[in-house]
Amino acid sequence: MSKQPTISTSEYEKRRQSVLKGLKDSIGLVFAGDGGAELHGSWRPNPNFEYLTGITDEPGAAVLLDPLQKISSKQVTLFLKPLNPEVEKWDGARDFIDSKLIAKYGIKSIFRSERLPRVLNAAACKAKKLACLQAFANHDRPVSADLAIFTKVAQRIPGCAIVDKTDLLAKLRAVKSASEQACVREAGRITSLGFESVLRTMKPGMNEFDVQEMLEHAYRSNGSRGPAYNTIAGGGFNGTVLHYGANEQELKDGDLIVIDSGADFRGYAADVTRTYPVNGRFTARQKEIYSIVLKALDASIAKVRAGCTFQQIDKAARDIINKAGYGDYFFHGIGHHLGLEVHDITPDQPLKKGAVITVEPGIYIADECLGVRIEDDVVVTKDGCINLTKSIPRSIAGIQKMMRS
Fold it and tell me: How far apart are alpha carbons 16 and 127 in whole angstroms?
């Protein structure tokens, strides 16, 4: 059995060093976020925190980055919530801060969170510059955690400024390392097993939820911790609703079903959409629309390469759909970055080699209860791209053959 991909502690260290270099003479602070998993599923940290540390089980943690520290081992400090024996009776034991924990995380400076205000204040007094790394929220949303605490600190230190470094992590996360690409590839492989299960089993009379259950059972049975996002399984008219999520209607003979789903692997997401005939056979009209969308997908994937933009990729698909007379029925963008978030952080720049993106044209004709979307995940290369999800059947002949089997 081949070894499963993973992210090493040395890679997390390399990421932190890249951020320290980008901070220059300012202080950065990234919070994991609060919360817990009590009785309602697993907790996920802030993706920027996970990207820098790999830690996924410490709500309330934070990592301080101080490039002005002369001792390199103190340039990165991890803060963890205090141990609480009463809470741990319910939620499980947590680690002591010792040499084993330092080796586990690859961070030599670790303290409990009550020490954060003192350490941050000392760093701010020295640097007089606090850098926001977390994307700023709209005015009607809560202020980002780093900006909120920096505002309080700056009010108490004359001459201390708050600067914008929100593009720093965005640009780093937009280019995936070989190990990150391997994780997305594995997520795609596991996703393919789920779609294959659906193709071989789905039939009229089943419920949309049955399709969701088949997919997600396959994910968890093959090394995933579950879906990377809420599965969409929309039959008939529901397939024309982009973010349909009820998944509760009976699948009817003669309808198409739009399935948008992807497995999570070690925090990295796959994001795949396929459109299948519920009874295993496309009608002539369904073939017509499906063929247009598939042609648009192939044309847009052919445009992907380092240096191109989403606008250029979108145009390749939209030109084909417009020419066919269905431009008004393709009303969303062509794709997005993919990684620790299914709609991963996206810097305002052309695509770079190593980016992982989705490509997903569609046509949605509500009056005919006819929706088609096809989506693949690709890695951007110098001269093109590598399709990570092409093994999941998408040709009309391939789909019908597998459904007959």
Answer: 19
pLDDT one-digit tens code per residue, 265-292: 999 999 999 999 999 999 999 999 999 9
Tell me what the mean pLDDT of segment 388-403 comes to. Answer: 97
CA 187 to CA 224: how far, in whole Å? 7
Q: What are phi and psi of 265, to 5 degrees?
A: -135, 115
258 close to 278: Cβ distance less than 8 angstroms: no
- CA-to-CA dists, residue 335 to 16, 273, 305, 339, 394, angstroms: 29, 12, 14, 13, 18
Phi then psi for 286, rounded to 5 degrees?
Answer: -65, -40
Taking only the tens place, the pLDDT of each residue in 303-344 is: 999 999 999 999 999 999 999 999 999 999 999 999 999 999
Domains by residue range for the chain, with CATH: 9-173 (3.40.350.10), 175-404 (3.90.230.10)
pTM above 0.85, yes or no: yes
Alpha-carbon distance values, 28 to 63, 117, 142, 162 (Å)? 8, 14, 19, 10
Nearest-angstrom CA–CA distance, 108 and 71: 11
Query: Which helix (H) or strand (E) segment is 110 a member of?
Result: strand 109-112
The model's confidence at residue 90, banded by pLDDT at 50, 70 and 90, is: confident
Q: Are 238 and 208 in contact (CB under 8 A)?
A: yes
Whole-angstrom distance, CA of residue 166 vs CA of residue 63 = 16
Q: Judge contact between 195 and 274, C-beta under 8 A.
A: yes
Q: Are 346 and 240 in contact (CB under 8 A)?
A: no
Work out the angle between the directed axes of helices 145-156 and 116-127 (0-180°, nearest 10): 60
For the CA atoms of 248, 250, 255, 261, the dihedral, rounded to the nearest 10 degrees, stands at 30
How far apart CA 182 and CA 6 sit, in angstroms, is: 8
Grouping H, G, I as helix, E, B as strand and the rest as coil, residue 117 is helix
Token pair of 383, please? 């001269």
Per DSSP, the residues of 238-290 read GGGSTT-----SBPPTT-EEEEEE-EEETTEEP-EEEEEETTS---HHHHHHH
